Amino acid sequence: MVSSGRTRGRPDRVVSIGSYCRTVSQARANIKKSLMTVVVGIWLGAIKPEDASRLFGLVGGGARELSEEDADRFLPLLEALLRRIVV
What is the rounded end-to-end Cα distance, in angstroms, of the chain? Predict the structure, then answer.
């Protein structure tokens, strides 16, 4: 079973179910690692819990597009959190 979707901009190739499942599995693993990084950052004191709470509050509404106002609030907060994690 394959989809009729496009891959890498080439209409003559389709995505197999195995490729799709592998990609979804990799995405889930990446998300889990990212969340664990945030949790460890909070545990070590590198990230303030209220900063993480604000971040999750901004994107916690589910799979939706951010309004321009939310995007303007989200990007600086994300950059601040990343600076705290990296430092």
Answer: 47
**Neighbour count for residue 47 (Cβ, 10 Å):** 21
Per-residue pLDDT tens for 35-69?
898 889 889 988 888 878 877 776 665 446 667 77
51: left (phi over 0), alpha (psi -120 to 50) or beta: alpha
Predicted TM-score (pTM) of this structure: 0.56
Backbone angles phi, psi at 7, to 5 degrees: -125, 135
Distance CA 8, CA 45 (A): 41
The alpha helices in 1-87, defined as continuous H runs, are: 17-44, 49-59, 68-86
CA dist., res. 57 & res. 51, Å (int):
10
